[in-house]
Write a structure and sequence with these properties.
Length: 176
């Protein structure tokens, strides 16, 4: 749909489409930007952002709009359907809004990660998680070295003293 939109309305020039979307963000959706970047307090986490509320939101949009044909009938993989001009026209606005929301939300998550990284750097002592990870890696390294050393010491030299030779269902022993 985006490719169709760019070729139909922006002469297949991504920069024109980008400028259009940026203009939409600055004007039409300017009042929504801060809401799009926020999480409910119950959904806030350090790196998962607002995943729970965003998943619920897209699930609702998919069920009500995306997975319905132009006659508002549920689409089915077993039923043949066509994404017609009517479908395109009635869904494109939502698609572009979701595209802008995704950009705002991705920027918010990246900013949040950068902010938490900056806060971690401000602390003179490493956090407990880092210390535990270092201890686990150190112990794991010691165990691997010990196992390698033990298996090397336990290895017997491979000398062949007697090989069985079988011919015509008779067994003969050959001394090496």
């Amino acid at each position: 749909m985006i490719k169709h939109r760019m070729s139909q309305d922006f002469h297949s020039q991504p920069t024109l489409y980008f400028d259009y979307l940026l203009n939409q963000l600055k004007n039409r959706y300017a009042q929504n930007v801060s809401d799009w970047a926020q999480c409910r307090a119950s959904d806030e986490s350090r790196f998962l952002a607002c995943s729970t509320s965003w998943i619920s939101e897209i699930e609702e949009i998919n069920c009500e709009l995306v997975y319905r044909d132009e006659n508002n009938q549920p689409m089915s993989p077993s039923k043949r359907f066509n994404l017609s001009q009517i479908y395109y026209t009635t869904r494109m606005d939502t698609l572009e809004q979701r595209l802008l929301q995704a950009g705002v939300r991705l920027a918010a998550v990246i900013n949040k990660i950068a902010q938490s990284t900056d806060e971690d750097k401000k602390s003179d002592k490493p956090c407990l998680g880092t210390i535990l990870l270092m201890i686990v890696l150190f112990i794991q390294s010691i165990l691997i070295l010990a196992l390698l050393y033990y298996s090397f010491l336990r290895r017997k030299p491979t000398t062949i003293t007697e090989l069985p030779v079988i011919t015509d269902k008779k067994e003969y022993h050959v001394k090496a």
